[in-house]
Task: inverse folding
């Protein structure tokens, strides 16, 4: 048996007929609910209990307490306030109100958020959620929260915010007050709120009337919001405003529940006395409600046909208490055509009602036919049937008619007291409070199991449609204990991404309205109505939320496939698996095994492990579970003979027909359910004017299915096809049993001449035409008296079955290719591609179904036309790019729709030969172009070594660039070179293949650059090169022109890896200017990524492994560009593009980068150069803020200030380094001097060991400080302080604004250390020089950085001591002039410092020290006078002194300002008095006194200026 036959024509057509047959008989859904209820009337057991040995079908997955803030608020109210609660599944929130406060929080997860809204003064009496109408509010308001108080109706905008990864569209919500959308209630207390999918808001009042809250944008006299009563006329208005309440007669029956059928546009109202009213909302669902029917006493309606009479529970309920209706629920159109409403009574009974005047079963029951027909207006409300309540005892399990327990009578134990009920999509949730101690939740859902041992006629819904018993509605009842009292029940909506694939097609079939107008809940109910068997391959497990007084509980309904998965995970016994297959039928169970084996249901919530997939595959192929193919008619005669009656001569003898196993049936089910949502639908939709004969020439043709839908569906089809392909290729399972069978003519291969009429056990036709024995042809034998045909043996039947499954696999493959083709066409705008088709082809395209696209010649022809149009889009005169990208996708994804021939390669070679012999240059270029156009269609067949050389000789460098890149893409179509998740060897092989192609483009650049040592030799891509006569040598201008052409062509190519390879090569070849000028936008990320990598070839993504290979080039080893080179190029690029702020950041990164081990030494001068450039660029950015928003942002963020600060710190670092180097060099000089001097003294005067250690430490620190930029803290603590660099310490403290009352002591101490160090090194003269140098840097500051009092006192004391002891000759003016220079010639500041010292007797107790300070003050006053005079003369103090000859005359003092003159005279007078007080000999004090006196007399003698 050959499995390499991939012919798809006849096989796909035959398999498509089988799928069409399955879908047509399946009718997409289970039987109509009305039929199922009618059949169940005659069933004695409508309810069943869950299988005890199976995993639980209902699980509690989450149980959370109520938010603490809600509990505290309720307790604060004392439990006597108005409290309401409910669930809004649309926004994934639960809500509760306590008096005037409303709380909202997530019910599916606790995120810690429970916002409270308490903007109203009155208590909240009703809450609702409505979809915001488009065009009225801002786009952020998606929903409206309706709050009703006794006096007002309020609308709040609900704004939903998605999560960061966009997986949760309701991650956060906020309530937006809408003060203009608040209206009074006119004294009516609202009881409930209901909203339509179109955004209409209906409210029910306690006055038994229905109101509508209408809102709009408002214009002119029209109000934005108004309340309209639809059930009351003038009488209602008169009774409300005229008659007082005491005069109103009759009891009011308030409405307590409103339910809207958004599919049929019907509004239902339930009153407190169980009266149900029906209102018609019009054909489009946007009209005012019109009352059409009303029904009373529905709770007393009984159906006596269940089991011949009332159930025991019903009789007991009628005796104990009067029942009432507790809940209403609409029925989806998918679930039933005739039953529209379900009413749940307080005793658990369900009444199924209809608004149609007549109920019939004409037409395809349960199908979708007729649902999109004419609008049927509701006219009546009548009970179709009543279903008894599930009888649940008080034992451990679920029983029917259990005995009395705990002293209660049997009747009492069977009576349920339903407080809350919820019915949706075949699931019924009942909150029963009949037990005195606890509350219980009764869950009723459809029983999908089948107790028959053999499979019946299968349907896509999984429920058979033949026989009354098989159509009967059977339900499973499960009891679940609930802590507290159940308050609200609701469905949890499935994730939108899980339902899109089904919704997009299902709603087109069964919804008469628009898809966009249907709410998420309406669409979800339709999907659930299909049944779990039909949707479990695409929908996740169904969930429901239970709101009780103790918290929120989330329950999950396990699908049949989940139960099977649990059985396989728990290694269930053979008995349990056989029981599962027996209950669901071998075909249905095999389909579930196939879903698990192909992992079609695997998700983050429910992951199918490899072990489970293998077990499911084994069960799918186990003949003991799925059976074996057999001949259906072989046992007829034998079975017709009974021991008592003998042989029946009148019985019809059937011909033997092959019946396939459950595995084949399961595959048919899977394929049908995957394809049914698109199978018979048109693949295109025509958008234009409505009408039966739409003009397709003027209309727009677009793809019907969204991209994500086709992708999800295509992925699932691909997974199933891949599983079958793997079993086939490995000869496992069913394929393994038939290996070697099939050599017999016709046993495996199909016979196209035979009719397609053989049936399988499902009642459908086989894919194969089973040939007949004895040379007979055809499936219908001619009348004959001969013996019966010979049955086939089991091996042949197995071969037939596997062959049929192989045809279905090919159909799945073809379908997946069709979906991918539609995706590609949709990406390239089908409307534009369809314009190239003629009118007849466009009409065929508009009506083309997916079935026809997959299985018909017409569909294949249309697909070919579309592919041709797609190719023309790329290669036409106005082509948009390269055809290789789309062709690779078509070849890989749609090989049956797109196929190319290799002869085009040889056509290209012929064109190159003709071009080589042509004389005219234009003719050469034309032929080269033709060759390239042919080669790009078949790049995998191109011999790059030969072709690129010939294109270079022709100077057709476009082909030199494009052809290797096309080759690289063809060799690595899956982009394994970029996938880090695959095997490293496989990825490396893909990288090598790509680099081999890239190298041909690089060789062209090297050849034009004239790099020596460049040769080309043979590679594995083709035959050796035939070197022809080399072309003429190019001049420099031509070389540069062709280099630019290659670079421009290369940059246009969308290949990131090639761009990186190109950029590195250009940097290696010194083509930096061309790179910065011609490179594409990806140059910036390339330079950024390359600069982050270490300067090692092993860390580069694409190493130059080919350039180092002797098989390609010689003399071009891999050159690693230093990391700084990339950053410098990046900075140059930003400067070139005038992006100064970005350039500044790059220069900053260059300056801050760490010194790499073994790399080039980066000096502090280089770092200073980089930082200076960064400051320059930052200043340019701040000066040109209008050049771009990026520049302005960086400037606003203080970039310039940051860089200038870093530059200042770097100056400190350079100064520290210089000081450390000087310290080390001084020690070396001293060491040399000591070595040259005699060493006879065993005790040298200096501590050699200590100084040597200090010098060594300074040398190490100097080397360490050059490695990287240091922070200001590191410079201070690790370098300046340890090595006593007090001058730098002072400058650092001043730069760091290190000032304040608590820090002044540190500055004074630092100055004292600096002065002591200077005095030690050079005496007072050195100290004065230090004060001049350092003080001028720190002045003016804030007074803390330059403490003049401390400096002055320290120097004056040192000068007095040294001059007195004779150590140093210190002048009387040295200290004063040093301070004067430190303060930048501000004499008044210095005078104040001396004044403060002289005024403090405790600081200066010595008369000699005070006399020295007075001498210094005299110098300061003289300098002050000269400075004031120089300021008036426009020169300096020294200049004034030189001009005046050093002596002030009375005429010259006139130029001094009177205020300054008075200050100087006053100070001189005080200081003369101070001199007289000194207890010193006159010989010492008299010169000082005379100096002050002369200064005073000179200033007093001048006239006032």
Result:
């Amino acid at each position: 048996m050959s499995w390499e036959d991939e012919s798809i024509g006849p096989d796909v057509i035959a398999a498509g007929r089988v799928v069409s047959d399955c879908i047509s008989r399946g009718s997409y859904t289970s039987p109509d609910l009305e039929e199922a209820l009618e059949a169940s009337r005659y069933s004695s057991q409508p309810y069943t209990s869950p299988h005890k040995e199976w995993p639980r079908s209902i699980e509690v997955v989450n149980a959370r307490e109520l938010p603490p803030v809600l509990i505290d608020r309720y307790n604060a109210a004392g439990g006597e306030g108005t409290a309401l609660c409910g669930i809004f599944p649309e926004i994934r929130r639960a809500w509760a109100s306590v008096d005037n406060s409303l709380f909202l929080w997530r019910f599916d997860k606790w995120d810690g958020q429970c916002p409270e809204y308490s903007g109203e003064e009155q208590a909240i009496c009703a809450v609702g959620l409505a979809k915001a109408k488009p065009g009225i509010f801002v786009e952020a308001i998606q929903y409206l929260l309706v709050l009703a108080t006794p006096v007002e109706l309020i609308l709040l905008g609900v704004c939903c915010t998605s999560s960061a990864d966009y997986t949760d569209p309701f991650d956060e919500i906020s309530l937006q007050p809408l003060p203009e959308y608040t209206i009074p209630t006119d004294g009516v207390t609202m009881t409930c709120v209901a909203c339509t999918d179109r955004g209409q808001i209906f409210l029910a009042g306690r006055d038994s009337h229905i109101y509508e809250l209408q809102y709009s944008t408002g214009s002119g006299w029209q109000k934005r919001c108004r309340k309209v009563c639809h059930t009351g006329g003038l009488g209602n208005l008169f009774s409300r405003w005229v008659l007082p309440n005491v005069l109103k007669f009759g009891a009011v029956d308030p409405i307590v529940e409103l339910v809207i059928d958004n599919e049929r546009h019907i509004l239902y109202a339930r009153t407190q006395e169980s009266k149900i009213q029906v209102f018609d909302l019009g054909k489009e669902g946007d009209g005012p409600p019109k009352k059409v029917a009303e029904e009373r006493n529905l709770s007393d309606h009984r159906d006596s046909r269940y089991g011949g009479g009332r159930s025991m529970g019903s009789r007991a309920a009628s005796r104990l208490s009067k029942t009432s209706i507790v809940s209403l629920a609409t029925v989806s159109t998918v679930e039933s055509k005739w039953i529209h409403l379900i009413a749940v009574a307080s005793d658990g009974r369900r009444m199924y009602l209809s608004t149609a005047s007549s109920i019939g079963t004409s037409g395809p029951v349960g199908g979708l036919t007729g649902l999109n027909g004419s609008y049927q207006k509701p006219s009546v409300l009548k009970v179709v049937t009543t279903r008894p309540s599930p009888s649940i005892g008080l034992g451990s399990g679920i029983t029917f008619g259990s005995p009395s327990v705990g002293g209660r009578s049997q009747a009492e134990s069977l009576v349920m007291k339903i407080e809350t009920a919820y019915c949706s999509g075949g699931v019924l949730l009942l909150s029963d409070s009949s037990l005195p101690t606890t509350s219980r939740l009764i869950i009723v859902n459809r029983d999908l199991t089948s107790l028959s041992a053999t499979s019946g006629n299968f349907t896509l819904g999984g429920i058979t449609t033949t026989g009354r018993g098989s159509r009967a509605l059977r339900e499973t009842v499960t009891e679940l204990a609930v802590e507290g009292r159940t308050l609200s029940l609701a469905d949890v909506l499935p994730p939108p991404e899980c339902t899109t694939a089904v919704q997009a097609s299902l709603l087109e079939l069964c919804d008469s309205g628009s898809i966009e107008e249907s709410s998420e809940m309406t669409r979800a109910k339709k999907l659930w109505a299909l049944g779990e068997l039909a949707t479990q391959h695409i929908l996740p497990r169904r969930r429901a939320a239970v709101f009780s007084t103790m918290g929120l509980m989330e329950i999950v309904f396990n699908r049949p496939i989940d139960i099977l998965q649990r059985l396989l995970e728990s290694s269930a016994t053979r008995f349990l698996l056989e029981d599962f297959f027996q209950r669901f039928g071998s075909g249905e169970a095999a389909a579930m095994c196939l879903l698990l084996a192909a992992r079609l249901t695997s998700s983050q919530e429910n992951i199918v492990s490899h072990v489970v997939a293998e077990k499911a595959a084994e069960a799918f192929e186990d003949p003991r579970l799925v059976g074996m193919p057999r001949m259906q008619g072989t046992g007829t005669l034998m079975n017709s003979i009974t021991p008592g009656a003998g042989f029946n001569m009148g019985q019809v003898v059937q011909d033997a027909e092959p019946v396939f196993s459950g595995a084949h049936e399961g595959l048919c089910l899977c394929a049908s359910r995957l394809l049914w949502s698109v199978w018979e639908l048109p693949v295109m939709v025509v958008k234009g004017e409505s009408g039966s004969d739409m003009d397709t020439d003027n209309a727009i043709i677009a793809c019907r299915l969204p991209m994500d839908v086709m992708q999800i569906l295509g992925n699932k089809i691909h997974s199933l096809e891949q599983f079958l392909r793997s079993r086939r290729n490995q000869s496992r399972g069913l394929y393994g049993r038939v290996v070697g069978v099939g050599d017999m003519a016709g046993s495996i291969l199909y016979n196209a001449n035979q009719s397609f009429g053989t049936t399988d056990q499902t009642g459908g036709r086989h894919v194969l035409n089973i040939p007949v024995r004895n040379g007979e042809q055809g499936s219908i034998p001619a009348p004959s008296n001969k013996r019966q045909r010979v049955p086939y043996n089991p091996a042949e039947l197995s071969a037939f079955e596997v062959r049929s499954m192989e045809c279905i696999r090919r159909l799945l493959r073809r379908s997946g290719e069709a979906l991918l083709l539609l995706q590609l066409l949709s990406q390239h705008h089908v409307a534009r591609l369809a314009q190239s088709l003629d009118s007849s082809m466009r009409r065929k395209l508009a009506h083309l179904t997916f079935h026809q696209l997959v299985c018909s010649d017409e569909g294949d022809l249309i697909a070919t036309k579309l592919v041709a149009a797609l190719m023309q889009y790329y290669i036409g005169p106005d082509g948009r790019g390269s055809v290789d990208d789309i062709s690779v996708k078509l070849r890989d994804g749609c090989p049956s729709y797109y196929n190319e021939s290799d002869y085009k390669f040889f056509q290209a070679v012929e064109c190159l030969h003709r071009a080589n012999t042509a004389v005219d240059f234009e003719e050469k270029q034309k032929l080269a172009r033709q060759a390239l156009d042919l080669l790009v269609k078949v790049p995998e067949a191109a011999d790059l070594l030969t072709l690129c050389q010939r294109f270079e000789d022709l100077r057709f460098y476009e082909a030199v660039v494009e052809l290797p890149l096309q080759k690289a893409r063809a060799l690595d179509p899956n982009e394994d070179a970029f996938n880090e998740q695959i095997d490293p060897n496989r990825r490396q092989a893909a990288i090598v293949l790509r680099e081999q192609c890239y190298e041909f483009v690089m060789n062209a650049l090297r050849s034009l650059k004239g790099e020596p040592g460049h040769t080309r030799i043979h590679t594995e891509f083709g035959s050796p090169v035939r070197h022809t006569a080399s072309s003429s040598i190019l001049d420099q201008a031509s070389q540069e022109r062709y280099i630019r052409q290659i670079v421009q062509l290369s940059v246009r190519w969308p290949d990131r890896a090639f761009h990186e390879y190109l950029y590195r090569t250009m940097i290696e070849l010194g083509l930096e200017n061309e790179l910065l000028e011609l490179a594409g936008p990806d140059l910036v990320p390339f330079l950024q990524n390359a600069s982050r990598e270490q300067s090692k070839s092993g860390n580069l993504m694409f190493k130059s492994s080919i350039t180092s290979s002797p098989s390609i080039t010689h003399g071009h080893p891999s050159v690693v560009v230093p990391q700084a080179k990339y950053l410098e190029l990046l900075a140059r690029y930003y400067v070139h593009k005038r992006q100064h702020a970005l350039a500044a950041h790059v220069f900053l990164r260059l300056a801050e980068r760490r010194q790499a081990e073994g790399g080039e030494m980066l000096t502090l001068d280089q770092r200073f150069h980089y930082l200076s450039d960064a400051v320059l660029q930052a200043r340019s950015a701040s000066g040109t803020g209008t050049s771009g928003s990026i520049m302005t942002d960086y400037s606003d963020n203080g970039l310039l200030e940051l860089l200038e600060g870093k530059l200042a710190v770097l100056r400190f670092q350079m100064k520290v380094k210089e000081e450390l180097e000087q310290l080390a060099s001084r020690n070396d000089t001293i060491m040399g001097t000591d070595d040259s001097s005699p060493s006879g003294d065993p005790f040298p005067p200096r501590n050699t060991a200590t100084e040597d250690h200090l010098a060594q430490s300074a040398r190490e620190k100097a080397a360490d400080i050059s490695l990287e930029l240091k922070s200001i803290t590191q410079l201070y603590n690790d370098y300046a302080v340890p090595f006593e660099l007090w001058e730098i310490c002072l400058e650092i403290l001043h730069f760091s604004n290190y000032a304040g009352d608590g820090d002044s002591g540190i500055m004074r101490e630092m100055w004292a250390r600096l002065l002591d160090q200077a005095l030690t090194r050079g005496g007072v003269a050195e100290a004065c020089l230090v004060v001049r140098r350092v003080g001028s840097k720190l002045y003016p500051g804030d007074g803390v950085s330059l403490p003049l009092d401390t400096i002055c006192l320290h120097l004056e004391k040192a000068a007095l001591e040294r001059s007195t002891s004779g150590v140093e000759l210190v002048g009387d003016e040295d200290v004063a002039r040093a301070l004067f220079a430190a303060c930048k010639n501000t004499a008044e500041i210095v005078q104040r410092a001396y004044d403060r010292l002289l005024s403090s007797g405790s600081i200066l107790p010595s008369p000699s020290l005070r006399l020295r300070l007075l001498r210094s003050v005299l110098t300061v006053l003289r300098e002050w006078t000269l400075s004031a005079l120089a300021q008036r003369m426009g020169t300096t103090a020294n200049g004034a002194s030189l001009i005046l000859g050093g002596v002030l005359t009375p005429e010259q003092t006139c130029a001094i300002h009177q205020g300054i003159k008075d200050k100087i005279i006053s100070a001189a007078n005080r200081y003369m008095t101070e001199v007289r007080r000194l207890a010193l000999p006159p010989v010492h004090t008299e010169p000082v006194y005379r100096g002050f006196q002369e200064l005073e007399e000179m200033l007093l003698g001048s006239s006032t200026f």
About this structure: The first strand starts at residue 47 and ends at 48. The mean pLDDT is 77.
